[in-house]
Amino acid sequence: MMWILVLILAGVAGVLAYLLFKQRSAGQVVVVVPAAEPAMPSAQPAPSKHHFWGKQFIVPDTTRACARALETNGHCFAYGKVPAVPLAGCDQAVCTCHLRDLEERRSGRERRSGHERREDVRFEDKEDRRKGKDRRGDHYDWRFTA
């Protein structure tokens, strides 16, 4: 009787090992995310029509909102940086926060006059203006600028 139980356990272990090997060889990766992790920004793709540029976080009832939602209320987020709703750490039993699409306000047409003005304002015929004494002081270390 004991050897039947050992054979069944060995068979189940063999099937599980086969399924795991098959899944890994197919290039599929299983990622287990613990439930206690804070919510990451949702990777929401932009709508297919390009007249929206992002989303705005809306809290309809500010009396029943968590502190983080009140801080984020009205903020605009570009696609790819939109937070997941409900926000991480939301303590409300029923979250009423939502995201609203933001329409593109630019017309899309070219606003330049057509005349290139950069060629008009050149100083090649004058002497080099950088030959003078440096106006910046020695107190700033320029190696640490961004």
Describe the structure.
This protein has helices at 2-25, 67-72; strands at residues 52-58, 76-78, 98-103. It is α+β, with helices and mostly antiparallel strands. The protein has a domain at 52-103. It has a three-stranded antiparallel beta sheet, with no helix packed on it. Mean pLDDT is 75; it is low at 28-40.
Query: What sort of overall outline do the alpha carbons produce when their principal axes are compared?
Result: elongated
How many strands in all?
3
| Major beta sheet summary | 3 strands, antiparallel
Tally of separate helices: 2
With strands numbered from the N-terminus, the spatial order across the biggest sheet is 2-1-3
**Topology pattern, helix = H, strand = E:** HEHEE
Which regions have little confidence, pLDDT < 50, spanning 5+ residues?
28-40
Radius of gyration: 30 Å
> What helical percentage do the residues reach?
10-25%
